[in-house]
Design a protein that fits this description.
5-stranded mixed β-sheet, 18 strands, 4 helices, alpha+beta, 7-stranded antiparallel β-sheet
């Protein structure tokens, strides 16, 4: 079974049973998942011989009736399902993102029930989901609770609060716990006055320049860090 077949089958298995009774007519979640995947493929652009960048922000336009159905069931839940599916799709095809993947639903009164439209754009953000299993990347990379993130922006804040770029579900972590600043001389980790402190290689720090393979801990949450790798495009 090919990558695209596995993607569509996985979406169907994960989503169809949950939404089948709700979406008796109009658009189906599996149709929307396939549509955002097609948009991802159509807009993916090779920027060099080793990297293809895909859009990370998607707008799904729906008829008033379909949007009402999606909202009544849970538009955030469906958006998260589509985001997860897109990230899995990107991993299968080794697409790269330069910002967090986001899916939003909007109303379009010109659309009939059961019709939809998908548009996308690429927007650089402070972090992006890592889509390669290899920790070596042109962006610095973090692994937190089994999830990997490329540091695609100049600064990234990690903490428990929703205002953080990466949110950690750990009561021992402050709302804004640490900041990582990517500079030409390395990635600088700074503690933002957290209650329980920040640790690199089990040494409490206020500010430190990270090195490849450093182990970080905030609260009870371990974080692994890898440096960016310079890529020769010639």
């Amino acid at each position: 079974m090919g990558v695209l077949d596995r993607f569509e089958k996985g979406v169907e298995n994960a989503m169809q049973s949950a939404f089948a009774k709700t979406f008796k007519s109009g658009v189906k979640p599996v149709e929307l998942a396939a549509a955002v995947k097609r948009e991802c493929d159509a807009r993916a652009a090779a920027v060099d011989r080793t990297r293809t960048v895909a859009p990370n922000e998607y707008i799904v336009s729906l008829s008033p009736a379909d949007l009402e159905t999606v909202t009544s069931w849970g538009d955030e839940a469906l958006a998260h399902e589509l985001q997860d599916s897109l990230e899995e799709h990107a991993r299968g095809l080794r697409y790269a993102f330069v910002g967090a993947v986001d899916v939003q639903f909007v109303e379009d009164e010109s659309l009939a029930t059961g019709r939809y439209a998908v548009t996308s754009k690429t927007t650089r953000g402070p972090v992006a989901p890592a889509t390669s299993p290899d920790p070596l990347s042109r962006f610095p990379l973090l692994e937190i609770d089994g999830q990997r993130y490329n540091l695609t922006g100049a600064t990234t804040v990690i903490g428990r609060g929703n205002e953080s770029d990466i949110v950690v579900d750990d009561n021992g972590v402050s709302r804004r716990h640490i900041r990582l600043e990517v500079t030409p001389d390395g990635t600088i980790l700074s503690d933002l006055g957290s209650t329980n402190g920040s640790f690199v290689e089990e040494q409490r720090i206020t500010e430190v320049t990270l090195v490849d393979g450093n182990a970080i801990r905030i609260g009870r949450t371990p974080i692994m860090y890898w440096d960016a790798v310079l890529v020769d495009d010639e």
